[in-house]
UniProtKB/TrEMBL annotation, chain A:
InterPro entries in the cross-refs: DUF1468
Protein name, UniProt field: Tricarboxylic transport membrane protein
Ranges of residues in domain DUF1468: 16-148
Membrane spanning residue stretches: 47-67, 125-143
Organism classification: Bacteria, Pseudomonadati, Pseudomonadota, Alphaproteobacteria, Hyphomicrobiales
Organism in which the protein naturally occurs: Ancylobacter vacuolatus
Automatic annotation (TrEMBL), chain B:
Record-annotated membrane-spanning stretches: 20-48, 110-129, 135-156, 168-185, 205-224, 322-343, 355-373, 385-405, 411-427, 464-488
Coiled coil (residue ranges): none
Domain DUF112, residue spans: 19-439
Domain of life (superkingdom): Bacteria
Protein name (database record): Tricarboxylic transport membrane protein
Source organism: Ancylobacter vacuolatus
Keyword line: Membrane, Transmembrane, Transmembrane helix
Length: 159, 499
């Protein structure tokens, strides 16, 4: 998506990205040239297309390296902390998904993400509770999607 | 040329179940379009796995996704006009004249006129699709593997020269997408490629995981930054009415925008952002004699709105007839069809008329429903702009996690989605567009298979790629779109220097 209003940064990060892509193309090409196969019904086989792509990517990354172009400014300070916190919260929710179940994991995620988007503690906790309950009802009952209840609860129910 | 498929389509689309699905899609689409910062591609990415998990038949899924697509092209104008924050790239141009109108207290009129021009654009686009698609499909029957391969080269060439301002990054995105598509079992030789002996990667990278990672997780992270830097002020809608004078005043702009939108839509890979930009620029050149464009000219509003809706319909032409998507959003829809093991192409019209016809018929019905939804209820949709991000973003994340988990029932898939999302965020910060990656991914397997089949036919002779008239024309076109704009720019610069 185009976002012309955002501030633009220097070319260092672009050059680093170009180098990373170049290294990636070499590794991908090397791995592609070593693909093992017993037979192939076509003259090209499974190796040629990946090697061709690697060559094209290597060429494009070289152009990118010398003509790095524009990119957006990187976040700093609190914004950077929030940018790390968001995927971290999704990670925590994913890891909690099966142990404590859908509703609990989604509560942690929605309340946490609400908080980093500027809601007060109270608003984010209430928002998290409401969203966890609402989505549980929508998916679990209305749309009948399979969702984990949580091993802890399942165990206590059995006990 | 026969339009029988369309009658089959109307009987599918008018069943009560599909009508309801279409209505829900139009409603959700308008909401998705109206919400700032999320657009059609994000909406479709989020709702695709849910439609798939619900076990909807392919034609109903297509009707739902198409309704969301067209609905969000309508809805996109609401946040552009009232907030000056385009909901998606296709609505950027709408803000240029729409927001000044809102500031002059004419938001209601602006929403009405843009709603009408969206409708006209949408209908002209669907009529074009109805007439042009079977024609292109009958042409494409003659395509062999070599022609298909060259067609995809042409698609990437168009993408590189028309999408985004940094062609190298667009092309790198395409190649990355093609590379991602090579992961997994190679069907012709039985070799496992780039799977690192992991059984999960044997079937390749899952489309749902990739799309949600790229379009939803990375979007949420970007929203975090814009949240920190700006606050939004919602303009008042005011009185909603249409003045006959304004309709007459904008008719030319709407019609021109519709035609440009359709043509740009048909070109592979170029979506609503290109269509609305081209039509706005042209309209400004044609009509702006008093310098009123950018200060609240109704024509500057009508033209890009007609274009982005017409483009949405046009983008289905290459997707349905050639299997090459006309925009990023249709690339996601192509991936959705592949989930059902359906490969679009010229045979689809004859073999699965219920899907093609149902989809096209639903676009007619959808545009009428959207006009009805968007004219009287625009005030209600505009209230959505008051929804704070601290409610919206957690909701998007819940949908993402549920979408991925429900199609795989595995936490590993959610973790892969998260990893892909973080990579997507890095790439977007560096100025890469996500649509070329998706386009490369959905075309990757087909492109390789066609290349290998072509060379199997010729016994390894590369000359087969340059033999038929169609291939030669496509090569020439590809070279023209790749080099044309650059040469034109140089030529006009040299001319300017001479004068």
């Amino acid at each position: 998506m185009d976002a012309p209003q955002r501030p633009l940064a220097g070319s260092l990060s672009n050059r680093l990205a170009a180098l990373a892509l170049l290294v990636f193309s070499l590794i991908y090409g090397y791995a592609g040239s070593g693909i093992e196969y017993a037979f192939s019904s076509d003259p090209l086989g499974p190796r040629v297309f990946p090697v061709l792509l690697a060559a094209i990517l290597a060429l494009l990354s070289l152009i990118y390296l010398f003509v790095p172009g524009r990119s957006e400014a990187w976040p700093q300070g609190m914004v950077l902390m929030r940018c790390i916190a968001l995927p971290a919260l999704v990670l925590i929710a994913a890891l909690l998904f099966e142990p404590i179940g859908f509703a609990g994991a989604m509560f942690v995620m929605t309340a946490g993400v609400g908080r980093i988007f500027g809601a007060s503690w109270r608003a984010s906790l209430i928002g998290g509770l409401v969203q966890a309950a609402l989505w549980y009802l929508v998916f679990g009952y209305l749309l009948d999607v399979y969702l984990p209840v949580g091993e802890l609860f399942a165990a206590s129910r059995r006990g | 040329m026969t339009l029988d498929y369309l009658w089959t389509g109307f009987s599918v689309a008018l069943s009560w179940q599909n009508l309801l699905i279409g209505l829900v899609g139009c409603f959700l689409g308008t909401i998705i379009g109206a919400l700032p910062a999320i657009g059609p591609i994000n909406g479709i990415a989020l709702l695709l796995p849910i439609a798939y998990t619900l076990g909807l038949p392919p034609e109903s899924t297509m009707i739902l996704l198409a309704a969301i697509y067209t609905g969000s092209e309508y809805g996109g104008r609401i946040s552009s006009i009232l907030l000056n924050v385009p909901g998606d790239a296709g609505a950027v141009m709408t803000a240029l004249d729409g927001n000044p109108l809102a500031r002059q207290g004419r938001a209601g009129e602006a929403l009405m006129i843009s709603g009408l021009s969206s409708f006209v654009g949408g209908i002209i686009g669907v009529v074009g699709l109805t007439l042009f698609a079977p024609f292109l499909a009958s042409l494409a029957i003659g395509f062999g593997p070599a022609e298909y391969f060259v067609l995809m080269v042409f698609a990437f060439a168009t993408l590189g020269s028309m999408v985004g301002s940094q062609p190298v990054k667009t092309l790198i995105g395409c190649v990355l997408g093609l590379m991602l598509a090579t992961v997994g079992l190679d069907p012709t030789s039985g070799a496992y490629r780039f799977t690192f002996d992991s059984p999960e990667l044997g079937d390749g990278i899952d489309f749902v995981v990739l799309v949600i990672g790229l379009f939803s997780i990375s979007e949420a992270m970007l929203m975090l930054e814009s949240h920190a830097t700006g606050t939004s002020i919602v303009g008042k809608v005011g009185r909603t009415f249409v003045r006959w004078k304004d309709v007459v005043f904008t008719t030319g702009a709407t019609l021109r925008g519709s035609i440009i939108g359709f043509v740009v839509g048909v070109l592979p890979g170029t979506g609503a952002s290109v269509a609305s930009a081209v039509s706005y620029t042209l309209e400004k050149r044609v009509s702006d004699r008093d310098g009123t464009f950018g200060k609240g000219d109704m024509r500057g509003l009508a033209s890009p709105e007609a274009a982005n809706n017409s483009c949405a319909a046009g983008a289905f032409v290459p997707m349905l007839t050639l299997g090459v998507p006309g925009s990023g959003t249709t690339a996601v829809m192509l991936g959705a069809l592949m989930l059902y093991n359906i490969q679009p192409g010229p045979q689809l019209f004859a073999e699965r008329p219920e899907i093609v016809g149902g989809l096209i018929a639903s676009l007619y019905i959808g545009n009428v429903l959207l006009l009805l939804l968007n004219i009287p209820f625009v005030g209600i949709f505009s209230r959505l702009l008051l929804l704070p991000n601290w409610i919206l973003v957690p909701g998007i994340l819940v949908l993402s996690v549920v979408g991925v988990y429900s199609t795989h029932a595995s936490v590993e898939a959610v973790l892969l989605m998260l990893g892909i999302g973080c990579m997507g965020w890095l790439l977007r910060k560096l100025g890469f567009d996500m649509a070329p990656i998706i386009l490369g991914f959905v075309l990757g397997k087909v492109m390789e298979v066609n290349l290998r089949n072509a060379l199997a036919i010729s016994g390894g002779e590369l000359s087969i790629l340059f033999q038929s008239h169609i291939s030669i024309i496509l090569w020439v076109l590809a070279a023209f779109v790749a080099v044309g704009p650059w040469a034109l720019q140089r030529w006009s610069r040299r001319r300017a220097a001479r004068v």
